[in-house]
Amino acid sequence: MPKHDFVFTSESVSEGHPDKVCDRISDAIVDMFLAAEPQARCGVETLATTNRVVLAGEVRGPASITGELMIEAARHAIREIGYEQEGFHWQRAHIDCHIHGQSIDIAQGVDASGNKDEGAGDQGMMFGHACNETPELMPAPIYYAHAILRSLADARHSGSAPLLGPDAKSQVTLQYVNGKPVGATAVLVSTQHAPDIGQEEVREIVRPHVVNVLPDGWMCDEDHFYINPTGRFVIGGPDGDCGLTGRKIIVDTYGGAAPHGGGAFSGKDPTKVDRSAAYAARYLAKNVVAAGLADRCTIQVAYAIGIAKPLSVYVETDGTALVDEEKLSRILQELMDLSPRGIRTHLGLNKPIYARTASYGHFGRPPEPDGGFSWERLDLVDELRRAF
User: Fold this and answer.
1) Cβ count near 226 (within 10 Å)
2) pTM for the whole thing?
3) How far apart are CA 121 and CA 373, in angstroms?
4) Is the pLDDT of residue 268 over 80?
5) Quick check: helix, strand or coil at residue 133?
6) How many CB atoms lie within 10 A of CB 372?
7) Span 23-39, pLDDT tens digits
8) Please, what is the angle between helix 325-335 and helix 273-290, to 10°?
9) How many angstroms separate the CA atoms of 323 and 32, rounded?
10) Mind listing the pLDDT tens digit for each residue in 344-384?
């Protein structure tokens, strides 16, 4: 986005949104396979509707992981989210498993053999982005949209907001002056609730979670604080709307403030560059901004199926770079091997770390001791500064 005065909006959805239920189930199955065999391959899709879940896709991993175990993992994920409703219940929902073995045609293109390195699991282009709008180096609208829903979810899980249900959406519109966010012009939250409370009571339950998340002085005026605009949101989750894996790719990334290559993340093992290369591009972009080399940075990488080396690496800083962009692109490729194997090794991605990414964004989260969110590390900052 160029530097001038404008307003910009991003949305988030909660872990109980029907599409996010599906992302969570798909990633729970990926974690199950990677825990049993770090080199397992997964492409898992989930559909959820009223008291019914369908699992489909292809995997390559230990035969000990049966359809029954995958169904059990799906039930556990639904229970953790908090669905014990008449129209969608972790225990009573009917779950079908149609997951089968990976295509041998795909496998031979991806697997390493002889002098051939492991190839990309598919073609496509992936983007990573970072900017200095927040301490987490994320665009501010998506960061605060996520934070509002995480606060509401924490309150629901702790028991301090028992009248709220798992399904929710948020939308935050920020005013920018000279390219910097200065306050909210509108905030929208729609949240599932118990049938015996009305819109105004929901409004006052939600209000502190918005006020406490936004920086001081950023809250919008009352006329632009929208809570459950339809007036009632009792029927929610997959009972209210069908869910599918991979339908919230903009929520998962940068809220529309940066490009997206089009591929979804959830349900995919890290040989799939849709996921791993997007993580790598975020990692590099974040380190560039953290090193003070640019105020914002967007990186694109592109791959062909079965080919290890990326077809292209593009770096864009929207005119904010303090260094030569061509040299920056070259240095980044020297600091990180962007082949599928190189990315997985550098970031330690062959681990069961994915179910936690399925809601509230894959980026802007703190790195975790077990390797979760490793792409948020800032361990290239010193090397980048030395290089320039």
Assistant:
1) 14
2) 0.95
3) 21
4) yes
5) coil
6) 19
7) 999 999 999 999 999 99
8) 120
9) 44
10) 999 999 999 999 999 999 999 999 999 999 999 999 999 99
- Which of 146, 48, 161 minimizes the C-alpha distance to 364? 146
Beta strands 94-101; 52-60: pairing state: parallel
Which residues are CB-contacts of 171 (< 8 A; sequence separation ≥ 6)? 9, 10, 11, 12, 145, 186, 187, 188, 189
Q: What is the pLDDT of residue 141?
A: 98
Mean pLDDT of all residues in 132-141? 98
User: Cα torsion at 183, 253, 136, 273 (round to 10°)?
Assistant: -160
How far apart are alpha carbons 357 and 354 in whole angstroms?
Answer: 5
Alpha helices, H only, 51-185: 67-81, 104-110, 140-158
HEC string of 197-244 equals CCHHHHHHHHHHHHHCCCCCCCCCCHHHEEECCCCCCCCCHHHHCCEE
Backbone angles phi, psi at 316, to 5 degrees: -130, 130
Residue 171 is which amino acid?
Q
Give the residue carrying structure tokens 């979670």: 209
List % helix, strand, coil for the chain (3-state, nearest 5): 35, 25, 40
What would the two tokens of residue 76 be?
Answer: 């556990």
In the three-class reduction of DSSP (H, G, I as helix; E, B as strand; rest coil), residue 382 is classed as: helix
